[in-house]
Every structure is written in structure tokens, then in C-alpha cells.
């Protein structure tokens, strides 16, 4: 082989090696760049998730605080009732069956509605119409007992310091006209069941 041919092949080999090295370096740089590019969104996404979790946790905590405050306000309102019903009253003729406890209660308290059902239904019926209902006795209120049957109602005429009451009632103890049959008694220990009170409208 001549010297010129050897020199030419040597130069070609150097050129090929140089091109190969350049291509290899380019691939390394591209791979490194790709790694950086692919890693960056992952870190960003994680950061966004952490921030979103913090916001959600704060919102949940604020919701719990708001719910507790609302519950406390509702409880305070129930406890601090003024025992006066702020309702418009229609005074109508008594249509309950004569001699029944419902009839006697409306005779004593004309502000009572005519379609409140059996005695045991009165507290729920009155509350649905906007009447104030509670568990503290008051003169002029209607006492309502729910015994699981028809229930019983009576008109409160006196309240003692110990919580005992006197009432006028019908269809109790064989008496069918509104009368004070029992004197003072504990309204929470009678056979008529759980007691509540419908408070009279303002001005009554």
C-alpha cells in the first residue's frame, strides 16, 4: 500500500472517531437534559399536592369550628327560651269532643288550635305552627304528656319552687269538666309519661 493511501485512511479513521465522540457527547447531554426536564414537573406536582392538602385541612378545621359554634348557639337558644310563643292567634270555637282532656285544655286556653290531634300530639303540632315548646313549667302553659297512647293535656294554674305544678284538666279521675283534681304534684313522675309545655302567645 502506498504512503498516500495509508495517510488517507488514517485521516478517515480520525474523522470517524471524532464524529463518533461528538455524537456520544450529544446523546449524554440530551439524556441529562431530559432527566432534568422530567424531574421538574414531579417536584412541582408534589408541592401543589402538599399545598392543596394544607388548604383542605384548614377548610375542614374551619368547618368543624363553625358547626360547633352553630350547635352551641342552638343549645343556648333552647336553654334561654323566654317561654312566650311569638305567633298570631285565631280564637275559634272549641270543636274537641266535650269532656275529653283536649276539650278541657282549649276551654281554659282559647288560643289553642282545634286540629292539634290527640293530647300526646299537641306539643309537636304546636311546635310545627311556631309555638314555643319546652320542659320548664309556666302558669298559663299547656302541659302535654305522651304516654304512648292518646296522651294527656292540662292547663297549668300554679308552679311551685320545687317544680311541682297544679293544673285544671278534664277526663281525669272521673271528672270531665276542667277541675283541679290533683293539687300540687310532680309532673315528671306521673303515669301519663314524658311531659313538655306549650307556652302561651305574647299578651295572653
From TrEMBL:
PROSITE patterns: CHAP. Coiled coil: none annotated. InterPro entries: CHAP_dom (IPR007921), Papain-like_cys_pep_sf (IPR038765). Residues 76-199 form the Peptidase C51 domain. This is Surface antigen. It comes from Streptococcus suis.
Amino acid at each position: 500500500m502506498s504512503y498516500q493511501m495509508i495517510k488517507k485512511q488514517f485521516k478517515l479513521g480520525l474523522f470517524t472517531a471524532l464524529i463518533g465522540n461528538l455524537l456520544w457527547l450529544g446523546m449524554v447531554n440530551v439524556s441529562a437534559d431530559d432527566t432534568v426536564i422530567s424531574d421538574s414537573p414531579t417536584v412541582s406536582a408534589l408541592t401543589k399536592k402538599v399545598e392543596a392538602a394544607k388548604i383542605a385541612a384548614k377548610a375542614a378545621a374551619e368547618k368543624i369550628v363553625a358547626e360547633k359554634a352553630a350547635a352551641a348557639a342552638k343549645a343556648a337558644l333552647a336553654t334561654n327560651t323566654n317561654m312566650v310563643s311569638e305567633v298570631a292567634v285565631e280564637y275559634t270555637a272549641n270543636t274537641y269532643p266535650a269532656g275529653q282532656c283536649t276539650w278541657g285544655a282549649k276551654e281554659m286556653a282559647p288560643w289553642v288550635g282545634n286540629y292539634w290531634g290527640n293530647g300526646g300530639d299537641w306539643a309537636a303540632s304546636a311546635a310545627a305552627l311556631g309555638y314555643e315548646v319546652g320542659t320548664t313549667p309556666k302558669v298559663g302553659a299547656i302541659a302535654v304528656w305522651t304516654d304512648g297512647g292518646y296522651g294527656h293535656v292540662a292547663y297549668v294554674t300554679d308552679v311551685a319552687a320545687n317544680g311541682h305544678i297544679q293544673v285544671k284538666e278534664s277526663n281525669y279521675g272521673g271528672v270531665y269538666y276542667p277541675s283541679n283534681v290533683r293539687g300540687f304534684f310532680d309532673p315528671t313522675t306521673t303515669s301519663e309519661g314524658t311531659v313538655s309545655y306549650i307556652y302561651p302567645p305574647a299578651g295572653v
